[in-house]
Amino acid sequence: MRFKCTAAVLALTAALAVADGSRGGAATLDRVRDADRLRCGINPGLPGFSETDDKGRWTGFEAAYCRALAAAVLGDPDKVSFVTLTGKTRFPALASGEVDVLARNTTWTFSRDVDLGFTFVGINYYDGQGFLGRKALGVESATELDGASICIQTGTTTELNLADFFRLNGISYEPVPLETNAEARAAYRAERCDVYTTDVSGLAGTKSTFDDPDAHAIYPEIISKEPLGPLVRHGDDRWADIARWVLNALIAAEELGVTRANVAELARGAGRPEIDRMLGTQGSFGEMLGLDPRWAVRAIAAEGNYAEIFDRYLGAGSALGLPRGLSALHSDGGILYSPPFR
Q1: End-to-end alpha carbon distance in the chain
Q2: Hey, is 337 helix, strand or coil?
Q3: How far apart are CA 315 and CA 254, in angstroms?
Q4: Do 208 and 196 meet the contact criterion of CB atoms below 8 Å apart?
Q5: What integer is the mean pLDDT of 57-66?
Q6: Quick check: helix, strand or coil at residue 284?
């Protein structure tokens, strides 16, 4: 029997979907509050993004976002359990609920968004895949790598990008598959492969750990778009909103001149409507998220605004010294900006 889908049926279906969303929307937030702990998935070790200091404390670009989110939700940036995840284990861990948010450097793609059922809450770094090789090879371009052995992390977008690049250029390669960046870095240093390929930020991090970094070069070719960002599970809209707007607050804070040093003072009233709305002295944005009015104040105070975090871990103030590039604000030659707080 065939049923005619009437407007009334469509309306009822939509209403039920909204109701289901509202019931499920607080599930992760409730779990995090009940546990008084945020479980955040990060890379097992990638210089600048996630690494431990001499006291065993996780630091880096990824860890900073986790702390900002914990500060916004739980009032304390240190209420985070860091869960290290490889390219293969990250998606099962998020899907199963082992982690509440995946902050590990992950590329936003169609299949991950739609087929795997995840919600990317924004882009926090615009990257692209490149190649790192020894200068002794005498190679100055990735197009000269015909027959080269290439270390590559499994379970990542780099595998398909690599295959596409070599096929389009009519050259061949020998893949050396490895599970983690640490394994790939060790294999490259042990000369098990001629070249290592991953996102350029990862290559810069790897190169910075070498005793003789000047003996290695990152080739000029960028063979892909790799928009990286945090993600959560589908179907929990409230939690996705919180994760998204914490990231937006860090970016907007840079745009608006709100820093780790002045956020407490500005939170008493800046006299600028968008800052006042973001920091909770006007409006009810915290209530809309299910949080208190000072959620963004705590997020920014945790490790600073986006520029402060980037410079400390990836940019001029770090061993990597990466330029902002496309990750610069739209007003400074990049494409990064936050939707408005209004």
Answers
A1: 49
A2: coil
A3: 15
A4: no
A5: 97
A6: coil
